[in-house]
Design goal:
6-stranded antiparallel β-barrel; 6-stranded antiparallel beta barrel; Pdz3 Domain; Thrombin, subunit H; 17% helix; stress response; 3 domains; alpha+beta; Peptidase_S1C; EC 3.4.21.107; 27 strands; globular
């Protein structure tokens, strides 16, 4: 279960509700949802006096998901090193530890396709996913194949197999959900096993304020806790209208604010993953900010309408259409941009290559352009595009490196990324510049004392040019193997001269 002390959110994508196809003969199986009316589990008038009949019908299709992962820990991060004076000699190599994760999911076809959250099955950046196990309510375990994942929407599909058909449930139409409707959540909180909670729909189209293309949820007060991730949120007709994904909590436990990915957003993504299709989303290449009261007052425009462009990505559709920082986009493809229907969401749900109208305000005047929507880059590519955007050279930056396992961090106390053309443009250097750009420096390192900082580029080491992090770490490894305690780096700050600077290794 993902949670936060303030705001927790996941990435989504929109589309139409789709019924899952199975590998079994048509009509041979009946969805658990359909049995509800056959067995009169829910009266037409609304919520029953008890949820027992509804739960009995639906629970067989809700499963527990567990993973086994292996994590390699480098010597400098071995928690037992503090008890030994391990400097040279002895077995000071990396160690491997095992980790596990638990979550929930639900079967969407008789032939065993299972839907869950991506973060339930996605390993840590330093870990390798070894196996996934799906456990049915009767305790039967099945090894699961990871069919596909979509980190942006935080969705994943697994496949389990047996000779007999599986019980399954179908997606419903979440667009029909109303505030106040009864719902039940079934999942595996805290690893306890199948647990059912009930509540109502507290809000629809709930945004958490983080923005982005996928920040829209069904909010419910049905208790959702760690381990409920990936489990279904059912309406009183037994249809899956949401996938439990996150909670807002000051304590880490449920306080009655649970968030579920709407079925209308999740269902087409699940269908695409099952079919092995690539998931494409639209992109126009802008960094945006919601129009708050102060921005509206300053620009003399309507509140709660539109989004302010902070920067435009070179070479993308927005730049080609003449958009620039300071413009306020108020509609795209004839859809108004509002807090509940953000620019990112509208554009993400437009097929790449589609020509659409866009209306924006500049200097108090409305303007209209037509642009061709591009293809949204991967999350990793977007992160690189924005790696140094917003950096103010006159303002101190957070130079603390993230914890990781690389030799750069272990020996030099720095984090760095390969200089791609996108990063080169952010740094103001030629697109064909090769090397790595520093993103963080340990303040206790010799690198920090020598003036290495965020945005400084490392172009070479010990007389050799480099183009990737791996090439730099290979040189560091050779130096360490030779018993050296320093490396000579060829450095360049944006707008500065190239110079060679010796940097001593950190104490091991």
């Amino acid at each position: 279960m993902r949670y936060s002390y303030a705001i927790t959110s996941a990435l989504l994508a929109g589309g139409a509700t789709v019924t899952m196809l199975t590998g079994f003969p048509a009509g041979a199986q009946v969805a658990q949802n359909d049995r509800i009316h056959m067995e009169n589990a829910v009266p037409v008038g609304g919520a029953p006096a008890s949820f027992a009949d509804l739960t009995e019908v639906l629970q067989p299709a809700v499963v527990n998901i567990s993973t086994r992962q292996s994590i390699t820990i480098p010597p400098s991060q071995n928690p037992f090193d503090q008890f030994f004076n391990r400097r040279g000699g002895g077995n000071n190599g990396p160690t491997t530890r095992e980790a596990q994760s638990l979550g929930s999911g639900f079967i969407v076809s008789a032939d065993g396709y299972v839907v869950t959250n991506n973060h339930v099955v996605a390993p840590d950046a330093r870990a390798t996913l070894e196996e996934v196990t799906v456990t049915l309510p009767d305790g039967t375990e099945y090894p699961a194949e990871l069919v596909g994942t979509d980190p942006s929407s935080d969705l994943a599909v697994l496949k389990i197999t047996r000779a007999q058909p599986f019980p399954f449930v179908r997606f419903g139409d979440s667009s029909q959900a109303r505030v106040g409707d009864w719902v039940i959540a079934i999942g595996n909180p805290f690893g306890l096993g199948g647990t059912v909670t009930s509540g109502i729909v507290s809000a629809v189209q709930r945004t958490t304020g983080q923005g982005g293309a996928f920040d829209r949820y069904i909010q419910t007060d049905a208790s959702i806790n760690r381990g409920n991730s990936g489990g279904p949120l059912f309406d009183m007709q037994g249809n899956v209208i949401g996938i439990n994904n996150a909670i807002l909590s000051p304590s880490g436990g449920s306080v009655g604010i649970g968030l579920a990915i709407p079925a209308e957003d999740a269902s087409p993504i699940v269908q695409a993953l099952i079919a092995g299709e690539e998931i494409l989303r639209g992109y126009i290449g802008v960094r945006i900010q919601a129009v708050d009261d102060d921005i509206a007052e300053a620009l003399g425009i309507e509140e709660d309408r539109g989004e302010l462009i902070q920067s435009v990505q070179p070479g993308e559709a927005a730049e080609g259409a003449g958009l620039r920082a300071g413009d306020v986009v108020i509609s795209v493809n004839n859809e108004d941009v509002t807090p509940d229907n953000t620019l990112s969401r509208i554009v993400a749900n437009i097929a790449p290559g589609t020509r659409v109208p866009l209306v924006f305000i500049r200097n108090g005047e409305r303007n209209r352009v037509t642009l061709t929507v591009g293809r949204r880059p991967s999350d990793e590519e977007l992160m690189q595009q924005q790696m140094f955007q917003g950096d103010d050279e006159d303002t101190p930056q957070d130079n603390t490196p993230d914890k990781g396992a690389g030799l750069m961090q272990e020996l030099l106390g720095i984090d760095a990324v390969e200089i791609t053309p996108q990063i080169a443009r952010q740094l103001g250097v030629a697109d064909d510049t090769t090397g790595v750009a520093i993103t963080g420096v340990d303040p206790s390192s010799d690198a920090a004392r020598r003036g290495l900082a965020r945005r400084v580029m490392i172009l070479g080491a010990n007389g050799q040019s480099i183009a990737t992090v791996e090439e730099l770490e290979a040189i560091l490894s050779d130096a360490q193997a030779a018993g050296r305690e320093a490396v000579l780096l060829r450095l360049q700050a944006p707008g500065g001269l190239t110079q060679s600077v010796p940097v001593r290794f950190m104490d091991q």
